[in-house]
Amino acid sequence: MIGILSYRNNYLEKKYLEDLTKSKKKILLIRENKELKTNYSKNWKLQTGGFFEKKKYLIKDNITFINVSNHNSNKMLKIIKQLKINILINIGTTQKISKKIINSLRYGVINVHPGLLPYYRGSQCIERAILNDDPIFLTAHYMTEKFDEGKVILFKKVRIKGLYRYKDIRIKVYNTQSKLLSYIFNNFNKIKTKKNIDFIKLKTKPKIYTKMSFYLLDKVIKKIKNKRYKYQ
């Protein structure tokens, strides 16, 4: 069985579920009772302008919901064992996934990171790629107990040609991320045996761990608005 990880105030959860429930597969959504911090909500509104909250969704009823206090809890371990979960797909968690949870699964935990690994790590990869005039990529990978590490499954380039607002680029990234997660969910039996991922190289090799200042974010927004990003 495949489980899906989420948390209580996940603004993208409905979008993910809309794409995931398009298939007839049963979905087990394991939701943390925790919420992310307030500054996340502030950054989210800046990124998307409330686009995903205002949208109406068509979500089928092939979902079973389970609540846990923590994705690393003993209850989580029991759920994995009792329901014979082989793989977890992350659509949102409030923390790193522990080694004991990862090791309890046959195939581990899959995440889609909004950045090209191993070059772009951290929470501001889209913005850094724009500043560096690098293309925007998503990286599907197996999670480890560390952030933004693990074996790469596949890359997906996000095409943003013709987009001239920061929020439109961010919305396109999230929509593409949702579709990629749905693809992985529905094709995991093929994906798990795939080997020899073509590694994508960049001229720059940034490894980003720190948050971006509002000064740099303002530069990103102006660059997009003035049509100076190479891939617009």
Short descriptors:
7 strands; single chain; 7-stranded mixed beta sheet; Rossmann fold; 232 residues; 17% strand; 9 helices
Average pLDDT taken over every residue: 89
Number of domains: 1
Low-confidence segments: none
Q: What is the CATH architecture assignment? A: 3-Layer(aba) Sandwich
Relevant CATH superfamily:
Formyl transferase, N-terminal domain
Q: Determine the strand fraction and express it as a percent band.
A: 15-25%
Measured distance between first and last alpha carbons = 40 Å
Q: Find the count of extended strands (DSSP E, 2+ residues).
A: 7
Q: Give the radius of gyration.
A: 18 Å
Strand order of the largest sheet: 3-2-1-4-5-6-7
Shape, principal axes of CA atoms: globular
Explain what the structure shows.
The protein has a single domain, classed as Rossmann fold. Helix content is 35%, strand content 17%. The protein has helices at 13-20, 38-48, 51-54, 74-82, 99-103, 125-131, 166-186, 188-191, 214-225; strands at 2-7, 27-32, 63-68, 87-90, 108-113, 137-142, 152-157. A seven-stranded mixed β-sheet has the order 3-2-1-4-5-6-7. Helix 5 links the parallel strand 4 (87-90) and strand 5 (108-113). Helix 1 packs across helix 7.
